[in-house]
Specification:
- The protein is an alpha+beta fold.
- Helix content is about 25%, strand content about 20%.
- Strands 1-2 form a two-stranded antiparallel sheet.
- The relative contact order is 0.10.
């Protein structure tokens, strides 16, 4: 493992992501940090972007005519 940076744990177990890591992995306020333990019992940290509505709009296409007002009513029945 290459040591890139270190951080300190503050009150309430808060910490920050070092600048080198933010720049290397394009981390911003829309990034989710996933903490895990691998099969060797070692900690792992992964970064992924939060999926937003604008990211998924238009993924599914249909030939069926839909009415958004009617769909919303159906959800709340």
């Amino acid at each position: 493992m290459m040591n890139v940076a270190t951080t300190k744990i503050y009150k309430n177990f808060q910490t920050s992501i070092p600048k080198e890591m933010r720049e290397a992995f394009n981390i911003d306020e829309k990034t989710i940090v996933e903490w895990g333990i691998n099969e060797k019992g070692e900690p792992e940290v992964n970064f992924r972007k939060k999926v937003e509505l604008t990211d998924i709009i238009g993924i599914v296409k249909t030939d069926e005519v839909t009415d958004s007002v009617q769909l919303k009513k159906e959800v709340y029945k």
